[in-house]
Amino acid sequence: MPYLPEQREYRSIPLERMLPQESEEKTYRVSGYATTFDDPYTLFSYDGVDYKEVIDRNAIDELTTMDDVIFQYDHGGMVFARKKNGTLQLSIDEHGLKVEADLSKTPDARNMFENIDSGMVSEMSWAFTVDKNSYDEDTHTRTIKHIKRIFDVSAVSIPANPNTDIAAARAYIDGEIEKAAKEFLSREAQKRKIKLLVETRR
Asked: Could you give the CA distance from residue 164 to residue 171 in angstroms, rounded to a whole number?
């Protein structure tokens, strides 16, 4: 599958609960980090090699579109919080992209909080597109240098599936591996031509 820069990608992250103090009214708030910066993680392993990815500290900036990010369940259906109405907040700090959601506004959102609060749902995933990245053949690491758009953050029942959720990243890495292999074969072929030429001249 060819890598398409506009292809939406998904990654799973831990979802934290913001619990109220004993004297406070229940807040129905959850928080977590959509991503951490400069913190490599393994996307998948193949033939004894770990292929990794890292989000550059400057990958999310004022050019990243995230004006109407929504909080969902499994990336589809009901919207539980939304950036436009202030129930979802995204902020960038030294650690990464922080997500805070107020799940108090609707019965469905409060039910979603109860699922998170009880531990029935403990992961969330975020959806985004990449417009700048690079690949290091020596470390087998893809560096995401700029994220073009963030679509949503979603509470998920099952963490990221390496065969589906990271399909775009894997396609990109597979393409880089294929390109490196072709370049290697081309260099080897050139070496053989030079060697043959030298031997022919003797």
From this structure: 11
Please, which pLDDT band fits residue 44 given cuts at 50, 70 and 90?
confident
Provide the whole-model pTM.
0.75
The number of folded domains in the chain is 1
Asked, for residue 2, whether it belongs to a domain, the answer is no
Q: Is residue 70 part of a domain?
A: yes
Parent domain of 186? 9-201
Is the four-CA dihedral 116, 11, 98, 8 of positive or negative sign?
negative
Using the 8-state DSSP alphabet, how is residue 171 labeled?
H
DSSP β-bridge partners for residue 82: 70
> Average pLDDT of 55-83?
93
What does the pLDDT look like over 160-174, one tens digit per residue?
Answer: 544 335 455 556 666
Residue 3 lies in a domain: no
**37 within 8 A of 55, measured Cβ to Cβ:** yes
Summarize the confidence of residues 46-70 as an average pLDDT: 91
